Model the fold of this input.
Amino acid sequence: MRILILLFICFTICACGDKSTTDKFTGGEYFDLKGFFEKESLRLNRLHIPVVKTVSRNHNSETKKVQVNWENELALFIESDINKPAWKNSYRKVSNGSSIEYTALEDNLKSRKIRIIRIADRVKSIHITNRTANLLYTSTEDLAYLPDSVYIIKKEQSVKMLGTNQYVITGRLR
Done:
C-alpha cells in the first residue's frame, strides 16, 4: 500500500511539474511570424485601407490604386513562418538591441534569413529572404514589410529550359 501511495505522489509531482519545456514551443521558439501577419491581415481588412500597388514582371510594370484581401496579399510572409517543431534548433538567433535576426543553419530550409526590428515592443519592419532550389528551378524571394506604410515582394524564378523571370510587387498604404 505504501508503494502505491509513493507511486501516486511521484506521478502527481511529475504531472504538475514545470511545463516550460513542453509548452515553450507552442508559444513559438522564434518570433511568431504567422501570428503577426494573421493579426495584421485581419486589422488591415477591417480598416479597408486602399493600396497603391505596383506589379512588375521583367521590368514591365503597372500601377493601380486597389482594395486588397490582406490574407492573400501577405500569404508569402505567413508561409515564411519558422515556428515548426522540426525546426526548433534549425535557426541561429542573434539579438542586437532593437533587432532580432534568424539565420538558417541548414541548406534545405526555405526561409534563409528573417530580420525583425522592434521599437518599444512594436514591429517597425520585417525583412525575409527565402530560397528554394531543386533540379528544375531556383526561386528566391526578398520580402519587406513596414506596418502601415509599405510591403515589397521581390521574386526571381529560374526554370531550366524556360529562363529567368523577375517579379516585384510594391504596395503603398494610403
